[in-house]
User: Which sequence fits this backbone?
C-alpha cells in the first residue's frame, strides 16, 4: 500500500521524462511531498524556494507565463494559509499552475492541528477560476496527475493529497474522466459521496451492511458533477457526504448547494464538525472524530434509522 | 482621469512619471512577444501613470481612458493583465509583485532571453513580509536580469513612512541580502539611465534601484501624504494643471 502523495511523486517523474516543461517548486518539504526524487532526476527543473510559501506562489505565477507546467508543493495547511497570495497572484490572475497540498486531513496525527489541512477545500473552492481535485487511491492519483500534466491548462488547480497509505480500489483499466464522479458501489437506500483517502474506509463500512448504500467517489470538487449528485439523490432519497476535512465549505457544503438548488434531499455531512482536533495516533483520531470505518458504519445506521 | 472619476491614487502615480517614461521609451514593454521585457507594477495603485503612458503611445483610446474605474472597462482600479494585455501582472494587494517578477526573470532566462524584468515597489509596500522573502531568494538564482525600483516618496496611506514603520537603514538592509543597490533621484533621467545600465551590465546579482522621489511630483500641494488616495476638487485640479504647464 502506498499513499496518494507517493503515487503523485512517481507519476511526476514518469510525466517529466517526456515533458521538459514540467517544473517543480518546493518550500522545504520535498521529502514529505514526494518531490525529492524529481529534484534528483531533474535538478535543473527543481527550484528550492525555502520556507516561503507566498514567495513560491508568486514565482509560480510569473513562471506560468512562459509555457511551463508549474507544480508548487507544500502541506495543504501551509499552502492554503497564504490565501490572499493565491487569490490575487493565481486565481484572479488566472495563472495555470498546479498547487499541490499534501497531508490532508487528520493523517499527520501526532504533529497536531497546525500541520493538518482541514479547511483547504473550503478556501480553494471559494476562489473563482480555481479547480479543486482530490484523488482517492494511488491508481486514481497517477491517472489524474497524468491527465493534468498532459492537458493544456487554462486555470489554476488545487490538488489535495493524503499522507496515509490507502487500499487500492481500482485497477489499471481505470480511466480518469475529468469532472465526473465515480460510482464505486450502486445502491438505493443511501447515496454516500466521499472524497479523497477515506474511500477505502467507507467501502469497508458498507461492505456487510444490511442497508443498500451507493458509494460515489468525488475526485473533483470543483467543478462538481451535478448530474451524479442529482441522479443518486433521486435514486436513494437520502444523501451522506464523508470527508477528512471540515464540514464547513467542503464536499458536504458543495453537495448541499447542489441539492438545495435542484433537488432538496435530506443530507448528513460527516467530517470535522467545525472543530480544531488535536495530536494523536491517526487511527485514534479518525475514531474519535467519526471518520473510522466503524464510526462511519454507526453514522449510516443512525441516519437510516 | 482621477479627477473625472473622483477616484484613484494621484500622489504615488506622479512620483513615478520619470521612471515610467524612461522604461517605456527605452524598452519594448508593449510587445506581444512572450520573451519581451516585462514591467511589474507591484504598487498597483499607481496604475493611472501606466494608463497615461499607454494613452500617450496611442495604445489605449480617449474613450477607454474615459472608462477608467467604470463598469465594463479594461482600465481597472488596479492592474489586471487579463482585462488589459499591456499589464504584465495583476497586482493591487501589496507585497506580491516582486515574487511574480522573480518568476518572470527566471522564465526569461530559462528561455535564453536576455531581456530584463523590471519591478516597481512602493516604500510603504516593503513593510510586507513577502517582499523580504523575495529579496532573500533572488540572489540565489543570480537574477541579473531583474531590477527592482523602490519608489521612496516617504509617504503611505496613513502618513509618513518614517512614522508608520521606518525602513531605515534601507540600503544596508538590501545590501545585506546580497543585491546591488544604487541610490538615485527618481526624477533625474540621466541618473535613471545610468543606474539601469549599471544594473543590466551586472553579471550575477539582481539590482535594487532606490529612487528618492516626491509624492505628487510636479504639483506643489500634492506632495503631502494626505494625497495618497485623495481626489482633487475643481479648484485644486485647475491649480495643478496650471503648475504642470
Assistant:
Amino acid at each position: 500500500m502506498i499513499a496518494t502523495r507517493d503515487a503523485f511523486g512517481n507519476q511526476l517523474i514518469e510525466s517529466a521524462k517526456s515533458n521538459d516543461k514540467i517544473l517543480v517548486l518546493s518550500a522545504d518539504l520535498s521529502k514529505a511531498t514526494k518531490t525529492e526524487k524529481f529534484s534528483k532526476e531533474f535538478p535543473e527543473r527543481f527550484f528550492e524556494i525555502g520556507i516561503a510559501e507566498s514567495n513560491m506562489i508568486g514565482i509560480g505565477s510569473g513562471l506560468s507565463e512562459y509555457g511551463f507546467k508549474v507544480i508548487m508543493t507544500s502541506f495543504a495547511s501551509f499552502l492554503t494559509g497564504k490565501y490572499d497570495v493565491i487569490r490575487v497572484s493565481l486565481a484572479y490572475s488566472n495563472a495555470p499552475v498546479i498547487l499541490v497540498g499534501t497531508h490532508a486531513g487528520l493523517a499527520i496525527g501526532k504533529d497536531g492541528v497546525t500541520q493538518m489541512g482541514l479547511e483547504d477545500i473550503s478556501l480553494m473552492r471559494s476562489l473563482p477560476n480555481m479547480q479543486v481535485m482530490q484523488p482517492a487511491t494511488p491508481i486514481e492519483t497517477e491517472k489524474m496527475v497524468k491527465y493534468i500534466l498532459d492537458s493544456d491548462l487554462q486555470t489554476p488547480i488545487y490538488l489535495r493529497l493524503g499522507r496515509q497509505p490507502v487500499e487500492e480500489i481500482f485497477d489499471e483499466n481505470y480511466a480518469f474522466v475529468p469532472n465526473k464522479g465515480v460510482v464505486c458501489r450502486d445502491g438505493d437506500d443511501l447515496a454516500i459521496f466521499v472524497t479523497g483517502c477515506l474511500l477505502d474506509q467507507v467501502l469497508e463500512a458498507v461492505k456487510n451492511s444490511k442497508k443498500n448504500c451507493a458509494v460515489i467517489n468525488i475526485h473533483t470538487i470543483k467543478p462538481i458533477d451535478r448530474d451524479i449528485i442529482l441522479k443518486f439523490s433521486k435514486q436513494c432519497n437520502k444523501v451522506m457526504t464523508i470527508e477528512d476535512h471540515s464540514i464547513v465549505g467542503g464536499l458536504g457544503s458543495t453537495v448541499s448547494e447542489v441539492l438545495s438548488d435542484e433537488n432538496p434531499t435530506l443530507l448528513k455531512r460527516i467530517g470535522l464538525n467545525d472543530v480544531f482536533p488535536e495530536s494523536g495516533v491517526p487511527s485514534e483520531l479518525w475514531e474519535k472524530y467519526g471518520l473510522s470505518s466503524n464510526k462511519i458504519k454507526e453514522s449510516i445506521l443512525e441516519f437510516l434509522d | 482621469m482621477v479627477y473625472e472619476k473622483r477616484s484613484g491614487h494621484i500622489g504615488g502615480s506622479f512620483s513615478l512619471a520619470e521612471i515610467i517614461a524612461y522604461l517605456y521609451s527605452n524598452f519594448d514593454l508593449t510587445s506581444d512577444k512572450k520573451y519581451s521585457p516585462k514591467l511589474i507594477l507591484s504598487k498597483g495603485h499607481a496604475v493611472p501613470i501606466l494608463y497615461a503612458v499607454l494613452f500617450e503611445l496611442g495604445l489605449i483610446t480617449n474613450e477607454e481612458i474615459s472608462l477608467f474605474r467604470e463598469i465594463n472597462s479594461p482600465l481597472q482600479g488596479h492592474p489586471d493583465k487579463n482585462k488589459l494585455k499591456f499589464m504584465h501582472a495583476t497586482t493591487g494587494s501589496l507585497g506580491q509583485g516582486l515574487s511574480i517578477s522573480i518568476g518572470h526573470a527566471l522564465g526569461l532566462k530559462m528561455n535564453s532571453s536576455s531581456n530584463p524584468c523590471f519591478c516597481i515597489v512602493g516604500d510603504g509596500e516593503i513593510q510586507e513580509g513577502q517582499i523580504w522573502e523575495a529579496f532573500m531568494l533572488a540572489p540565489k538564482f543570480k537574477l541579473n536580469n531583474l531590477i527592482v525600483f523602490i519608489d521612496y516618496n516617504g509617504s503611505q496611506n496613513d502618513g509618513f513612512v518614517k512614522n508608520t514603520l521606518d525602513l531605515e537603514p534601507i540600503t544596508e538592509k538590501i545590501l545585506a541580502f546580497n543585491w546591488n543597490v544604487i541610490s538615485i533621484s527618481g526624477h533625474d533621467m540621466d541618473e535613471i539611465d545610468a543606474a539601469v545600465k549599471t544594473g543590466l551590465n551586472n553579471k550575477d546579482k539582481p539590482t535594487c534601484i532606490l529612487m528618492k522621489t516626491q509624492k505628487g511630483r510636479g504639483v506643489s500641494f500634492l506632495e503631502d501624504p494626505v494625497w495618497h488616495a485623495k481626489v482633487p476638487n475643481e479648484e485644486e485640479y485647475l491649480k495643478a494643471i496650471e503648475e504642470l504647464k
User: Anything to note?
Assistant: The longest strand of chain A covers residues 238-246. The two ends of chain A are 35 Å apart (CA to CA).
